[in-house]
Amino acid sequence: MDKNTIIGFLLIGVVLFGFMWLNRPSEKQLEAQRHYQDSIAHVAATAQQAAEKQLAEAAAPAMAQDSSAVSPDSLKSVFLQNTYGIFANAAEGDEEFTVLENEKVKITLSTKGGRVYSAKIKGYQTYNGQPLVLFDGEDTDFNLSLITATNRVVNTSDLYFSLLKGADPNTAVMRLKVGESGHIDFNYTLPPNDYRVKYTISALGLNGLLAPTTRSLNLTWTQKMRQLEKGRKYEDQYTGLYYKPVGDEVEHLNETKNDGKELNNQVRWIGFKNKYFSSVLISDNGFTKTVLDSKLLETDTVYLKSFRTLASVPFNITEDNTLSFSYFFGPNKYKLLNSYDKGLSSEQRLDMEQLVPLGYKLFRPINKYFILPIFDFLGQHIANYGLVIFLLTLIVKFCLFPLTYKSYISSAKMRVLRPEVEEINAKYPGQEQALDRQKEIMDLYSRAGASPMAGCLPMLLQMPILIALYWLFPTAIELRQQGFLWAEDLSTFDAIVSWNTHIPLLSTFYGNHVSLFCLLMTIVNIAYTKYNMSLTDTGQQQMPGMKAMMYLMPLMFLFIFNQNSSGLSYYFLVSTLITIIQTMIFRFSINEEKLLAKLQENKKRPQKKSSFMKRLEEAQKLQGERLRQQQQQNRGKK
Predict the structure, then answer these.
(1) What is the pTM of this model?
(2) Alpha carbon 600 to chain centroid distance?
(3) What's the rounded Cα separation, in Å, for the pair 368 and 465?
């Protein structure tokens, strides 16, 4: 260490020491700080003494009668009385459970809070082979906030209900005593062979016990959403909080970030939705003043998200009344959810089938009225869903065959006219004659009866169906845990190679595995792109980089589909293979010499130009004239 370095360190030390010395607190400041801390301690001690005094005064009558009666239990009783008032007797107890069970679900109820404690869906398992439990224990909570006539706020989740069982094993009543004569009943009924649980809240004799201003009950419903499927990324993407405003369409909070919303309009139902299963609370009376909250649990290895609902329901304490609800604990199966609206008017419809994301408004009808009926019909008669997807692909390709054939004929016309296009390119070389060259080529196509748009339009018409299928396969519960070939589950990725090491960017966008169906689909798409480009080479000059762009799309599919449903990759693999076979059949069955002769005959006929073509030619002439004027001006400046 040299001399300058030592001097530098000494100067830094002097500056730090001087700064600490100048900023040290004075004696007055130290005294004021001690006084402040003593004041805080005094306030805390005073509050504690006041609480103890209140308990002692409350226990004084008992002490006057019999000093031996004063015990920790009696003090606790006084404390509960002061805290819960008319609900004091329900503030202590032992938690008991009862089970409602049918062919579809097993529901466990708890006397602590009178709530649904757990829900198990029968006939399904989690991705790792465990029984499919939507929630259990502390995963969920349900609470009503009650205000007593003495202005105490009491939560039903803190109280113990009495279990009343009747003759029907699938009916249970949770009764909460209110004072000496009043009570609140939570009534649960599970019908046979159904995923819905009827739930009513009935009250008797509450007038004078609850606050006279009570016009509604405030409820809180929460649930932490478990990871039930293989592949957290896409399950998380389809896990969300949904709700149905009365007289409006189903809406949902943002699934990709923390989100919340306050609703002023009336809400018919609120749903906590996993990718394939949902917990839905439906109110016959409607929810008001609803506040919804969704939080991501990104670092949690068990749960995906946490959902919370605060809402009010109308309630009148001056008369005996009943609030009617129902829970739905079951699969997001379109046909099942849609069946709950049979026989209902448009105003009464629940529209719970919208828990199944079939795409945006433009594409949803395609799935609803075309793809799903075929898919359901095939699934009813064929057990292997790999075969179902194959047959569905054949049907879709058959329906699209006229468009595919028209697209091929259009590209064939362009291909046989290629020699003439190359002559035009030689006649008008260079960028300066680009407009003249393009005009001549368009005029050639027009006279021959060929159109570049004729090949693009059929492909554009096919896109809505392809996009609709992209939405259907990842959300179709029918594919869940259905194996085919090497894929154990067509609803998720089919990994043939996996690794645990996190690789920046690659792990985020591609994943920590290689999906075989996705890999095969990408290879086949690249091969088809190369083959199709050789067939559609019309001789026109292409934009720089266009060929590379054509290969970029299949490579993008590799990243988009690798973590997605293997059934989706399998569909596009089969679809592309069928397209290649169709193209090869067209290639060898269509006589291109006859096609060229027909185009040459078309040139001899008088051409009737459409209004669109006339406007296009006028626009091209105007643009060409402006370009020539600009070029002349540039020459004049030089």
Answers:
(1) 0.75
(2) 56
(3) 12
